[in-house]
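Why does residue order matter? Because the sequence determines the fold. Keep that principle in mind as you read this record.
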Amino acid sequence: MNNAPYEQEFVFHNGSRAKNIFELSVFLENMPDNEFRSFVNEQKNDFANWIEYVLEEKDLAIKLRATINIHETRNILKKFIEPPEKKSIIAVESEKKIIQPFESMIKKTVSVHDNKVEQLQHESYHSEHYKQGHHDSIEDHKEEHHHEQGKEHKKEPFKKFITEDMSSLVWLILYGLIIGLIVLLLIYKFVYKG
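Structure:
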């Protein structure tokens, strides 16, 4: 995205300046309609002129000249700033950021009890096996699966119960109990001592 030199930045009525299309878009989000009409109307489009001649984005300027509506202008600029392929990349990255903390919590929770993990492994193995059209008995596959794991898999009844997540949970429960106690004291004070 091109930046305008200081002497060619777009200057708004309040003295604010935009040096690129992103900054222009940000200012337009909160711009009142009457101020917008002073820049864009039937006779002129100052934004399109600045974008074409200073930032050298002729195609964008042509699209902007086709409208005098503030909402359409905002949408055109947003589409230019974030092309569709960039939006999908951003969506995937933000989805990963949302899911990753939950994945680590799930992994820690599942690994608390080895027998549960073993059971989950069997279930996922069998569901994949059946999807492929194999219909042998489940017991045959369990024996085969245990044989594959061999001596590598040690059975421990429980892993350490207190983990980082569990200590956070303990603090959260304590915090909730304290808040509950405060609420009960306030209720007691107002109801019984009025």
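The radius of gyration is 31 Å.
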